Amino acid sequence: MENLIRVKEDYNHTIIIEKSEFICYLRKTLDEDAAKEFISEIRKEHYNATHVCTAYLISGDIQKTNDDGEPGGTAGMPMLTTLKNMNMIDICACVVRYFGGIKLGAGGLIRAYSNAVSEAINHAPKVVMKLFRFYEVTFPYNLINKMEYLLGNKTEILDRMYDLDVTFKFMCQEDDIEEDIKALTNGQHLAVLLEEKYIERDME
């Protein structure tokens, strides 16, 4: 699965096409209310703009677009398609257009709104959403050094608990860690998958 990407902070970027100004505003939005609030803010700030077209994509299953008076399918949908093609998630994009007097035609509008979003994303600070698996494994004390070496090299150890046996909690992206632990302990002690979730990491 490809890693998903979020914008790290609010960002805007402007391009000029045939004398029309296209200003793309981006914000991380974790729910639909946040996206609607952002759109409202931009509309108020640019109350005299020719168009304020929008697209948002939240958690992969909530998505909406608005062409705001541009010909149907020439603004909001190309913006949304660009967000998806660039693996963005939890994002709202607003593109403000100030008409420069030259009509672009349907194809020109699609390219303009797509480029406004893609250029803004390329310049914006971003974080990558990496899918991590969280595990717990319990084992006897005589395996501490070997387990520390294995997990220290392939995972991030989150907690160490010492009782009658030792329990480590850790997270990783490695697909083969369960088999590695099974091999290390001759199948006597298995890693238990607790949960999977996406975590933000800085872009490399």
Secondary structure topology:
Elements: E1 4-7, E2 11-17, E3 20-28, H1 32-45, E4 51-58, E5 62-66, H2 76-85, E6 91-98, H3 105-123, E7 126-139, H4 144-154, E8 156-162, E9 166-172, H5 177-184, E10 192-202
Antiparallel strand pairs: 1-7, 2-3, 3-6, 4-5, 4-6, 7-9, 7-10, 8-9
Helix pairs in contact: 2-3, 4-5
Outline the structure in words.
This protein is an alpha+beta fold. It has two domains: 4-124, Impact, N-terminal domain (Ribosomal Protein S5, domain 2, 2-Layer Sandwich), CATH 3.30.230; 129-202, Alpha-Beta Plaits (2-Layer Sandwich). It has helices spanning 32-45, 76-85, 105-123, 144-154, 177-184; strands at 4-7, 11-17, 20-28, 51-58, 62-66, 91-98, 126-139, 156-162, 166-172, 192-202. The strands form two sheets. Strands 1, 7, 8, 9 and 10 form a five-stranded antiparallel β-sheet that branches. A five-stranded antiparallel β-sheet has the order 2-3-6-4-5, sandwiched between helices. A hairpin with a 3-residue loop joins strand 8 (156-162) and strand 9. Helix 2 (76-85) packs across helix 3. The chain starts with a strand and ends with a strand.
